[in-house]
Amino acid sequence: MFAKHTLVLMTLLLVLAGGSTARGQIVYGQPTAGNIKAVYNSWTLDEDGTETTVSQFMIPVTGFVPLQEDFELSFYAANSSNNLEAAGREYKLNGLSDVRLQVNHSFSEDHILLSAVVNLPTGKKELDFSEEWQVLQALSTNYLSFPMQRFGEGFGFSLLLGGAAMLGENVRGGAGVMYQYVGSYKPYEGFGDYNPGDLFSVNAGADLERGSTVWSLDAIYTLYTTDQVNDISSFKQTPQLDMRFSVQNNGEKIGLSGLLRYVLRGDNKIFSPEGEELTPLKLYGDEFTVAGALTWMFKPEWYLRPAADVRTVAGNDIDFDNSTIIGLGAGLSKDLGETMKVEGGYKLYTGSADGG
Length: 356
Hints:
The protein is mainly beta. Helices cover 2% and strands 60% of the residues.
């Protein structure tokens, strides 16, 4: 049996921004908490001797509030400053993201979890098409992986229902379903009403615990409805299957973790300005990631976290060949008592994309 209030359900909730994910959970005794970070990312792309530089300075703010037994609230907001230097010109995009509020409620001694997310349209919208659009396109390049790739959208919400149970000795399994709605908004100045397609996903996973080591296997299958501009069909994203295998070992002074991830995608549906369906195209290639990290408590309350990862992105049907990105870095943190922690880190990425 699971101890009450300690079950972390393996149902992944796709939060309404940037494709990020949050894990729904109910943990007994978790106090009110807040987190603020400063994250700087800069990429230099060299194509046939021509350099393009894209940079982002982002400040995300998150918080957690226990409302009552089996009931909790969390929130997220971010601001970023972005700069693009290309072909002798400089472009800028600065602004807020939408505010997201998530409420979790567990039932049946934490075997069932209900989550709801509300996306408040507080972020920057109606971008300048001649300058800010250029930056947004660079941020959205999938092999660069900027942490903030979206700003303001329309009012939206998502609902998730998940459950978990013991499947055998030291084995627990979980599954969930989720529906996400994003309302219409004007993404660019002078642009019509853009209505993103809704999203429906099913996920399942299992954990095997052996001593201090936990092995996990998860899969998420996602379906999308058609995007519309001024009530005319414009684009339909392909269904996506996201599979992950991970392992984590928590030693007394040294912890190890590893991840294998494969994202499988198909052809997207493209429509003409009149809403007529054109030849399907694969706009986003399949992805494979292998990552590993070590956590070393080299002295009381001090932690060093070296990490490495390799990510490959397959080419699409238009203008992109295979890419490979290698990341190497480390983080350092110190606990300041029971309620505060400071941390910092640096990571270097290198590799090739589009065959060069």
